[in-house]
Amino acid sequence: MTPEAGDRLPLESTTPAESFSALLRGRGVEPRWDVLGDVESVDPPEATTVLALRYAGGVVVAGDRRATAGNLIAHRRVQKVFPADGFSAVAISGVAGIAVELTRLFQTELEHYEKIEGRRLSLEGKANHLASMVRRQLPMAFQGLVVIPLFAGYDVETSEGRLYSFDVVGGRYDETDYTATGSGGRDARLYLRTVYREDFTEDEVLAVAVAALVAAAEEDTATGGPDLKRGIFPNVVVVDEGGYRDIEEDRVATAARAAMEASS
Amino acid sequence: MTTPFYVPPEQLMKDRAEFARKGIARGKSIVAVEYDSGILILGENASGTLHKISEVYDRIAFAGVGKYNEFEQLRIGGIRRADLTGYAYSRSDVTAKGLANAYAQALGNIFTQEVKPYEVELMVVEVGADADDNRIFKITYDGTLFADRRFSAIGGKEDALLEALDADYDEGAPLTTVLGWAKAACSSLTENGVAPGEWEAAVVDRLNGRRAFRRLESAEIDEA
Questions:
Q1: Does B58 touch chain A (CB under 8 A)?
Q2: Stretch among A69-73, A112-116, A201-205 having the lowest mean pLDDT
Q3: Which DSSP string corresponds to A70-109?
Q4: Which of B16, B111, B32, B112 shows the shortest CA–CA distance to B65?
Q5: Given strand B60-66, what is the order of strands in its sheet?
Q6: Which residues of A are known to be catalytic?
Q7: CB contacts, 8 Å: A21 with chain B
Q8: Chain A residues touching B86 at Cβ < 8 A
Q9: In chain B, N or C: fewer CB atoms in 10 Å?
Q10: CB-CB: which of A27, A104, A116 is closest to B79?
Q11: Which strands, in side-by-side order, build the sheet including A50-55?
C-alpha cells in the first residue's frame, strides 16, 4: 500500500493531546477495577435512584441520598448528582465507588479538553465520551459491578436542555421528556409519566422531581425518601441558559414536605 | 578522523542566549499586575484566536511570549501536569510554585541540551486567598526562575515596562484602574500606541469561585 499524503506527519499521536483519560492510559495510571474470579463475596455500596426532566428553561436533575449494600443502608448522605462542567450535570446509579471515580474522571476530562482547546466539548460530544467510559466498564458489569449514569445539560448551540440515558453496554439514548435510573427508577418513571408536562416552570419541575423521588422511596427500599428528622433532602440541580446551579436546600426541603404531605 | 573545533562553554552559552533573546525581542511583551481581588495579565495580541494567556488550573494562569508553537507546547504540558496532579491527589495540591519549577527544569534542559534553545519566556501566576498569597513567577528561555511581587513583565522590553508600572503602581487598586496602568505601560513601547481590539487580557480573580480564570472581553479592555 502506498502511503497517503500526510501519513508521515505526527498529527495523530496515539495520545490525543486533549484527552485526559488517554493521558492516564498512556501513563498506565487509569482507574481500574480488575476482578479475578467471581465477586459474590464483595458487596459494595450501591447508589440508587436518580432522575432528570426537561422543562421550558432547561433540565433538572435529582437524586435521593441513600446508598445500600445488600439489604443494609450503607450511607445516608451520599451525593449522586454532580456538575460535569459549567453547562451539564451527571447523576450516578450502581456501584457507588466506581461511579464516583468515573464522575471525577469525567469532570477532569471535560475541563482538560476545555483548557487545551479553548472551548467546551459540544453537549453530544460529552455524552458520547461518557458512553465510551460506561462501555469500558462492561467486563465489570459481567461481574455484577454495574454503573449507569444519567447525563443532562443545556445545549448552548440549540438553546435547549437535553437528556441522555445509558445502558450497561454503553448505549446512549436521547430522551425527550424525562428519564430515571437505579433501583427506584422504574417507580419514578411511572410517577413522572402521569404528571409530566412540557411547559413546567422551574418551581413546578422542582416539585415534580422531588415528588417522583418520594414516590420511588415509597415502593423501593433502596431509595431513601426525605428524612425530616435528620434533615436529609434530595440533591436537586438545574442546568439552564445561565449554566449549572444547585437548588438551595431550603427550597428542596419545602418541596419535599409538600410531596410527603400529598402522598400520605 | 576530524577533530571538532573547540568552543569555550562561555561562548556557547552566550551564543545560545543571544539567539533566544533575539527571537523573544521580535514579539510583543506581556505584563501581570496585582489588583484588589486578583491578578491581571495583559498583552498586545492582534489575533483573537491564538491566545498567549490561558487557564492552567483553578487559581493558576499561564502566559507565554516568543515562538507560538514552543510556548503552546509548554502550555499544554503544564495543563497536563496540573490535571494529573489534581486528579491523583487533590485540587489544592496543584500550585504555581510546582508548575513554575517544572517549567524552569524543562527550559533549562532544553537550553543546554537541544540543538536550538526555545525562544520563549513564560509567566505563571496564582491568585491566593489574600494578596499575600498571590504568586507571580517568571521563567526565562534558559530556565532561570524569578518570583516577582505586585507586577511583572516578560518579553523583550520588560525593563521599560517595569519602570512604567513602578511609577503607577499602588496597592489595592481595582481592576479598571490596573487595566489602565497595564495598557499605558504597553502602549508606551510603541510610537502609535495599540489599536482598540488588539489587546488580549485575562484575570485570575479570587471572587470568581473555583475556576478563578476569566478572559476579558474587548469592550471591557477598551473602556478602561
A1: no
A2: A69-73
A3: TTEEEESS---EEEEETTEEEEEEEEHHHHHHHHHHHHHH
A4: B32
A5: B53-57, B60-66, B120-126, B135-139, B145-148
A6: 48
A7: none
A8: 108
A9: N
A10: A116
A11: A178-181, A50-55, A58-63, A235-240, A243-246
Residue A173 Ramachandran class (φ > 0 left, ψ -120 to 50 alpha, else beta): beta
Would you say A84 and A102 are in contact if contact means Cβ atoms under 8 Å apart?
A: no
| Interval A159-169 mean pLDDT | 96
Return all residues near A19 (Cβ < 8 A) that are at least 6 apart.
Answer: A109, A112, A113
Phi, psi dihedrals of residue A165, rounded to the nearest 5°: -110, 165
Q: Does B219 touch chain A (CB under 8 A)?
A: no
Per-residue pLDDT of chain B (224 residues; tens, 9 = 90+): 677 788 898 998 999 999 999 999 988 999 999 999 999 999 999 888 899 999 999 999 999 999 999 999 999 999 999 999 999 999 999 999 999 999 999 999 999 999 999 999 999 999 999 999 999 999 999 999 999 999 999 998 889 999 999 999 999 999 999 999 999 999 988 888 888 889 999 999 999 999 999 999 999 998 87
The CATH number of the domain covering residues in B38-223: 3.60.20.10
Is residue B20 within 8 A of residue B141, CB to CB? The reply is yes
State ipTM. 0.92
* Average pLDDT of every residue of chain B: 93
Q: What domains sit in chain A, N to C, each tagged with a CATH number?
A: 45-263 (3.60.20.10)
The three three-digit cell numbers of residue B168, written as one number: 503607577
